[in-house]
Structure formats: C-alpha cells, structure tokens
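Q: Hi! First time doing this. I have a protein sequence and I read that you can turn it into a structure. Is that right? Here it is:
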Amino acid sequence: MFFDIGPMEMIALVILAVLVFGPDKLPKVIQDAMAFIRKVRAFSDSAKEDIRKELGPEFKDFEFEDLNPKTYIRKNILENEELGLQDLRNGFDFRKEMAEVTDAVNGTDTTAAAAAGAAGAATSTPDRLRKRETLDKDEPPPFDSDAT
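A: Yes, that's right. Below is the predicted 3D structure, encoded as structure tokens:
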C-alpha cells in the first residue's frame, strides 16, 4: 500500500499529521483510520465471496485479478502456445530491419557499402544524418541567436 511513498515523504506526512491533529488526538485518529480500512477490506472480501457463490461451481478458480486487461492478455493470449505468437515474435529481427531502413534513408546499400569498404573504396555520398566534428569556415554554429 505504501510502496510508492519514500521515507522522506512518510516523515513529512507524520509531521503534518502531528501538526493538524495534535499529539494527543493523533493515536485516536490512527485507530479510527485503521478500523475504517479493516471494514472496507472485510466488505470487499465478503462481496468477492458473494460473487463467487453466485457464479457457481464452474467459476471456482475465478480470480478478480483476471479482469485486469494486462493480466488477461498475458494469461490468455501471450502464454497460449496454440496461437503461435512465440514463433512470430522470434521470427522478427528488428535490428536487421532498422539497418535496412537506415540504409534506405541514407541512400546506401549495405551489401554495396560492405563490398566497397572491403575493397578500400570510399562512398561518394556523405552521410547528412551524422553529426559533423567541425563546422565549415563560414558556417555559424547551430542555434546561434546572432546568426539571423
């Protein structure tokens, strides 16, 4: 319940509670809050049991966490071997596809560039997507406000 609250936030909440309720009323407020939380938990547990009884014996292994869409997808679709999704997922090689897209954007061919690199020849088209190390002599720096 308090897994997402850090220690400094918890200390700040305690100090705020002492300031708002005072040190003499704080234990009573904490007891009332705990009693309220216990009643809510008991109510939700009894509601779950009533729903399980009404559903009947066909749903004896029904869990309410299964109603969460992420849990449902993981349990019924991704882990289902009959659909063959694991084979599809393993069949994609995204690095190869991204390299092909990058080469298409740059206007180079991976097989031709590899052959030219192996032969020692330089490619004739510059790579305009890469950051250059130095600027030209007359070129202003990027995002310079005086360059307008």
